[in-house]
Amino acid sequence: MAHMNMVQALNSAMDIMLQRDPRVVIMGEDIGYFGGVFRCTDGLQRKYGEHRVIDTPIAEGGIVATAIGMGVHGLKPVAEIQFADYIYPAFDQVVSELARLRYRSAGEFSAAVTIRTPCGGGIRGGQTHSQSPEGIFTHVCGIKVVMPSNPFDAKGLLISSIEDDDPVVFFEPKRIYNGPFDGDPHKPAVSWTAHPKGEVPEDYFNIPIGKAEIVRGGKDVTVLAYGTMVHVAEAAVRLAGVDAEIIDVRTLAPLDVDTLCSSVCKTGRCVVVHEATRFSGYGAELVATVQEECFWHLEAPIQRVTGWDTPYPHAFEWEYFPGPQRIAAALHHVMHSA
Amino acid sequence: MTQRSRLHVPHPPARPGDRPDFSYVQISPAGAVPRPEVTTAPHEMERLAVEMVRVLDDGHRATGPWNPHLEPQDLQVGLRHMLLTRVLDERMQRMQRQGKISFYMKSTGEEAVSVAAAMALQPGDMLFPSYRNQGLHITRGRSPVDLMCQCLSNTHDMCKGRQMPVMYHWGSGNIFSISGNLATQFPQAVGWAMAAAIRGEDRIAASWTGEGSSAEADFHQALTFAAVYSAPVILNLVNNQWAISTFQGFAGGEHRTFAARGPGYGMPGIRVDGNDFLAVYAVTQWAAERARNSGGPTLIEHVTYRAAAHSTSDDPARYRPRDEWKSWPLGDPIERLTQHLISLGEWSAQRHAALEKELETYVSDCWKEALSYGTMTDGPSLDPDSMFEDVYAKLPPHLIRQRDEMRALRAARAEPASGETKTLDAQAQRVTKEG
């Protein structure tokens, strides 16, 4: 085991997969010689050469489209989109092509492309470096959607994503690349060193796609969260003083319905948290699923705590961010509204 | 015999530790490229796309058919705008380093691309800038205070705190809003120009994007639509050699000039010395006259060098020689115009030093004024309620609810005696009412 931050864990996952599988290639803007603007691919081109760690033109549509072509011809491309906010030029290639290729060709063609992309706010990134568009992608049939919340999961889930026969969009919450974040921007930054999930095996291991994780056991209420918000939810639970069960959803599609709903059936209460905007957000899917599966066990209406339904404002990042106080208020509400 | 293909990967000529090498930059002598009539058909002037229009020669004299014969006063104005842009950039970079603003992007070495073009266009012409065109605002007379307030996200911020620094806009100055996403403005400028033609106006549009961004589909859509409709637009590709760590070869610059894409789409392409104030002015003037006379679009490749880091988040020493700019064969646009004015007897080292001092004082005064409208941490601040405005033309009910929820939370937080419980109760009450 070694101490790793999320950047190092992702780097390690790609290093191992480049080593193990000659079909794996890494591609993206600034990812080769430079090692990536967030350093996730640092050193990989030196180690594996320019034909396996490929710098690309600045064209997200072109990156995903050529990755599809490579995937069709037997490679396993891992494409980085520098910010999730820049993924939209590739949207047609993801939605109409990557997601449906297997289906429309009745299984004769497919492309096992992994798209890695940093998401989320809290870094003063304004409206074009802060978005969380995961819900847009979970709505597309034919792709899997993953968002880890810590270095251990980041490595294990990225390895599984690269090994998967289906395309995966892998969101990386950039606010927690270098350390967990509990939602209070005024506290000094914390590194992953002290966090148990900052202990990561140096060798190969994987975490199956489709499995949520219970981060904290509890009996009063279930909190469903993923990415940065797992840590914010933990802070909120401390603040609210309730015995909450926190579940890190981890893979948004496919969804681990059993783990989520077993918990809610046990606690009878549920709060859903994400940083993305609320209306038609991924939380709506979680709420609907929980309602369908757990209705007769529910003691209170399910609450959502999300980003407001506006673009991410540069100056009001912390008014926008669904911090611990808002989550704690929702916890109080579900505890007392029955 | 076995035949096999091999993947070509472009390489910049120099990496950190190497000697800078700009032998790949093909440079024509000043005055050597002919200036065609603006009515010339694109296929009759394709050499403009591969040679380089230059006016200032090595002795700093203006020469050749592209010399715009500007009055010395105009040159002095241009110099002032370029110098102000640079002084402003230096100041704002320092303020970012001191934590006063979150981010900044300098345009050092590329000032002529914006300033000369803005001077050659009419005030009614609509500009669609990239994020490194602050010289457009300066030239059109925008106070640095306004730009600083945007960077500070303070009470005078034209973006109301919604955008990262440098993502300016200026409606009344006819300068469009900057997106942050690359090249999106290029086809939008074409659409604006199409509207000007539909409306029968004599206004034209101009847009700027980098050579790196020219790989985006938006660039190619812009050229297609502009050519198809003969739109009155000037499409400026600023080839500053570097797109963060990606050198121009990765945008396709190894095999053909970027200007040569113009003739490929059926419009003139002009490759110009982007650090030659007079040359940039002259080709912009030519393209504007052509556009205003139903001659359609022009693609202009400005050959320049990004002397600064991509942004304050970037460290170019990781991917290019540290002193590369010093070897850039087209020099510094401010230095070149300065020397030209001196050679005309219209400028001097003393006047230059005095101007620099004056502009530094001016920028310092502007900064002080900007701070009086609020900083990131102190002073008057924007009303957070405003975050919900302008998502739609009219504030919809669900955003009114969310705004009220945020207000309640802030109000509860603002009462120190009440503590957390009160915050939570206020929230819970809100939820109950809504539920």
In short:
Chain A is of the alpha/beta class and 338 residues long. Helices cover 35% and strands 18% of the residues of chain A. In chain A, strand 6 (144-146), helix 7 and strand 7 (168-173) form a beta-alpha-beta unit.
Description:
The complex is a heterodimer of chains A (338) and B (435). Chain A is α/β, with parallel strands linked by helices. Chain A has 2 domains: 2-200, Thiamin diphosphate (ThDP)-binding fold, Pyr/PP domains (Rossmann fold); 213-336, Rossmann fold (3-Layer(aba) Sandwich). Helices cover 35% and strands 18% of the residues of chain A. Chain A is built from 12 helices and 14 strands. Chain B is of the alpha/beta class and 435 residues long. Chain B has a 5-stranded parallel β-sheet with strand order 1-2-3-7-6, with helices on both faces. In chain B, α6 (217-229) links the parallel β2 (205-210) and β3. Chain B has 12 helices and 7 strands. In chain B, α1 (72-97) crosses α2 and α1 packs across α10. At the A-B interface, α3 and α12 of A face α11 and α12 of B.
Query: Can you name the CATH architecture of the largest domain in chain B?
Result: 3-Layer(aba) Sandwich
Distance between the termini of chain A: 46 Å
Provide the CATH topology of the largest domain in chain B. Answer: Rossmann fold
Instruction: Name the strands of the widest sheet of chain A in spatial order.
Output: 3-2-4-5-7-6-12
Q: How do the helices and strands follow one another from N- to C-terminus of chain B? A: HHEHHHEHEEEHEHEHHHH
CATH topology-level name of the largest domain in chain A: Rossmann fold
What is the alpha-carbon Rg of chain B in Å?
A: 24 Å
Shape of chain B: globular
**Proper CATH architecture of the largest domain in chain A:** 3-Layer(aba) Sandwich
Largest sheet of chain B: 5 strands, parallel
Largest interface: A-B, 52 and 60 residues
CATH classification class of the largest domain in chain A: Alpha Beta
What is the domain total for the residues of chain B? 2
Number of strands of chain B: 7
Specify the CATH class of the largest domain in chain B: Alpha Beta
